[in-house]
Amino acid sequence: MMATFRIHDDQENILSMASKENVQSVQNKRAVLGDININKQSNRIPRQISKAAFGENHSKGINDENAFSDKITKKIIPPIPVAQFEAFSVYEDVKQEDANAKNRNKDVSRAPLQELNNVESPMSTDDLEICSMSIEKSVIVKEPSDLPSIERSVRDRFFEVEEYQKDIYQYLREAELKHRPKPGYMKKQPDITNSMRTILVDWLVEVCEEYRLQAETLVLAVSYIDRFLSYMSVVRAKLQLVGTAAMFIAAKYEEIYPPEASEFVYITDDTYTKKQVLRMEHLILKVLGFDLSVPTQLSFISLYCIENNLGDKTQYMAMYVNELSMLEADPYLQYLPSHMAAACIAVARHTLGMDAWNTELEDITHYSMNELYSCFMHLHKTHKEAGNVPQQAIQEKYKKKYKQVSLIESRPIEDSVYLLNKMI
User: Fold this and answer.
1) Is residue 167 part of a domain?
2) Where in this chain does the record put each Cyclin C-terminal domain (predicted)?
3) Given pLDDT bands bounded at 50, 70 and 90, which one contains residue 113?
C-alpha cells in the first residue's frame, strides 16, 4: 500500500504556511472604496525612518508586512501656524498686472519702418511666370466643354496620372513580353481540343457573372489557363478543374472579397473536392512560377481609352470584342496584349460609325493601322459571327449592362471609307 502523508506533521513549515494564509486572507478581503483612497494617500508619504541596528526587529520586517506602518501612522505632521502666511502678499500679482496695464495704455512712440530696397523674394508677385500661387492660374480653371464626362473607376484612375502615363505604358510593354502563352499549344494537347477550351471559357464567364467578379479577373484566369496548358498536358476530365483553380487564383489576386474554395467546389456541382482544387492551385502556381502580375488586353484598353478621352460606349464595345476573342485560342495568341487592345478599339470605333484609327491613337499606342490590319480583320469576323456561335454567355452579359453594346450589329468593312483606303 502507498504511504499517506499527514500535513500537520510537517512541523518546519507550519509558521511559513500560517503566514501565507494570513497574507492571502488579507488580500481576499476587499476594503471599502473610501479605505482604498486612504491607503493610496498613506502610501505616498515618504518613509523617513531611521535605520535600526543590524539584527533589531529583523524578523518583524520579514514576516510582518505592516512592520513600518505603526511608525508611519504615529508620525504626526506639525500644523503650520497661520502667522507664516502673513509673509506672502496676496495682492502682489495684482499690483504687477496693474503696472503692466498702465504701461500698455501709454502711447509708445515707435520709429517708422524703413523700406527695404533690392530684396529678392521667392514669392515676388512681379514674376508671374514663376509664381505658383498666382490667382489667375490656380483659382480660375476652365474645363473644356467638348470632352465627354466619363465616370472612371478606381482602377481606371490609376492611368489618369499624366506625369507617369508614359512610364506606365513603357513598363507594361516590357512586361507583356515576359510571360506569354505559346501560340498553337492546342496542337500538342493529346486529349483536349479548341472546342473544349471554348466551352470552358464560356462557363467561366457565367461564373464571373454569378459571383459578380471583376472583368479583369476573367481575363487573368483565361491567361493563366493558356499559360498552364502551354507547358502541361491535361486530360479532358481535369480541364474544368484547371479552369476552376485558375479562376480561384485570379479572384484572390484581383478581388477584395474573393469567393472561398468551397464556393468553387459548389459551382462544379461537387465534381471535384476542395482538396483537389487546392492541389491544382498549387500546381498552377508552380508551373507559372508565381508570376501572376501580367498585363492583359483589358489593361491596355483602359489605358488607351483614358489617354484619348474615349467614351464609355467605345470602351465597352472594345471590352466586348476582346471577350469574344477569348473564346478562340488561335489566331489571337500570336498577338501581344497591347496589339490586341489596339485592334479591339479600332473594331469598336468602326462599329460605332467612327474612323477606325487616327493619328492620336497611333502616337499613343505606337501602332499604325497597317500593323493592326490583320488582327482587325480577325476581330471583325469574330464580332460578325458572334450571334451564330452556341456559346452566348458573353452576349448575354453585355446585353443586360455595359450600355447593351452586344445588341449593336457589326458594321461592314465596305461602309468605311477609311478602311477602303487602307485596303487599297
Assistant:
1) no
2) 295-411
3) low
Question: Which domain range does residue 195 map to?
Answer: 185-288
Q: Is 214 helix (H, G, I), strand (E, B) or coil?
A: coil
In the chain, what is the straight-line distance between the N-terminal and C-terminal CA atoms, in Å?
113
Q: Report the number of distinct structural domains present in the chain.
A: 2
Distances (CA, A) of 21 to 18, 29, 79, 170, 178: 5, 12, 41, 79, 76
**In Å, how far from its chain's centre is CA 55?**
71
Domain boundary among 261, 288, 315: 288
Where does residue 285 rank: exposed (0-12), middle (13-18), buried (19+ CB within 10 A)? middle
The per-residue pLDDT for range 157-204, each reduced to its tens digit, is 555 677 787 888 899 999 999 989 999 999 999 999 999 999 999 999
354 and 402 within one domain: yes
1 contact partners, CB below 8 Å, separation of at least 6: none
282 & 301 share domain: no
Q: Is residue 193 part of a domain?
A: yes
pLDDT at 117 over 60: no
Distance CA 206, CA 212 (A): 10
**CATH code of the domain in which 381 resides:** 1.10.472.10
Q: How far apart are alpha carbons 177 and 337 in whole angstroms? A: 9
Return all residues near 245 (Cβ < 8 A) that are at least 6 apart: 264, 277, 280, 281, 283, 284
Give the helix, strand, coil percentages of the chain, each rounded to 5: 60, 0, 40
Write the pLDDT tens digit of every residue in 222-241.
Answer: 999 999 999 999 999 999 99
